[in-house]
Amino acid sequence: MTKSDPKSSPAVSDPEAGFELETFLPFLLNxxxxxxxxxxxxxxxxxxxxxxxxxxxxxxxxxxxxITARDICxxxxxxxxxxxxxxxxxxxxxxxxKALGETDKRTEVLSLTEKGTTLFETLGQSALQFDRTLxxxxxxxxxxxxxxxxxxxxxxxxxxxxxxxx
Amino acid sequence: MTKSDPKSSPAVSDPEAGFELETFLPFLLNxxxxxxxxxxxxxxxxxxxxxxxxxxxxxxxxxxxxITARDICxxxxxxxxxxxxxxxxxxxxxxxxKALGETDKRTEVLSLTEKGTTLFETLGQSALQFDRTLxxxxxxxxxxxxxxxxxxxxxxxxxxxxxxxx
DNA sequence: ACAAAACGGTTGCACCCACAACCATTTTGA
DNA sequence: TCAAAATGGTTGTGGGTGCAACCGTTTTGT
Lengths: 166, 166
Hints:
2 copies of one chain form a homodimer. By secondary structure, chain A is mainly alpha-helical. Chain A has a domain at 50-164: Winged helix-like DNA-binding domain superfamily/Winged helix DNA-binding domain (Arc Repressor Mutant, subunit A, Orthogonal Bundle), CATH 1.10.10.10. Chain A has helices spanning 25-45, 52-64, 69-76, 80-92, 114-138, 140-164; strands at 67-68, 96-100, 108-112. The model of chain A is unreliable at 1-16 (pLDDT under 50).
């Protein structure tokens, strides 16, 4: 099948020499995120027809309870238009309901409908199953370590962008 | 269901209880990838007008030398149509050139033009700079550890999808 | 008090993307 | 040998996405 196996990177050359793609974090993270998400995608897509964004909004709302669209944005680090449309779709399909904010009439407090709660629980089970399978192949220790480092990385990034700003 | 301060995750509840978004790897990876990529995006976008896909193709071609579109796909874990269009755009803009494969006339071997090489070197410098800044805030040890774990994770994922297949 | 700025959310638009259908070439296997 | 299957790559199409402009509401500064 494979002819020359491009997956073997050029022997991790010294980092001071030049740009090394296979150690470049944005590249590595994108690839890992893509592969991981693709692996779970069938769960919410096939049979439920959800978008990745919609699944994320569903998961966040299911997890945090009544929440506003803006807070979803900050939690997921996503564009507000993206979230807005996902919310619209989920409302349209009867999984989500909006309620006008009481103190602030600009906001709309989101919550799952009964249908949405059911779907969230179903997909939550799938997610747990996925997590279990992955952990079995990845080792619990490594996974914990990895999550800690991910958290550190985001902190470091936040620090970076706060320093040099824009 | 706490509704206040959504950024503080619910204290890492026991993993057996139910679906826990803030420990769900696809979610965490997507967020980290998004934040990291966004941070580097200005480098290739502003002033050079490259897409993220185009930048990736440029980087891979610059890194691996003469390479075929299919190999770029397997390296980056991307759709072939996405790569195809990025290649077209880069060829159009004079950064990339195609050469008909000699042994296999279906393939087209890609390589950087002089212009492409220059751009690759420029952006490679930016990438190095970015990496350096990030490493300063992230700690070299953590970064190395993190990369090792990322690699392990991809291996675990490959194993998973090979086992249960589809 | 009130105009200006800031903010939550929506939408128009151009663009990017995934998916599938497709073409040309190569490989397979009977 | 040659028809069927597989492969590298392109493209049409419907739909998702980012950006900026926008609306209505709230906050700020004077």
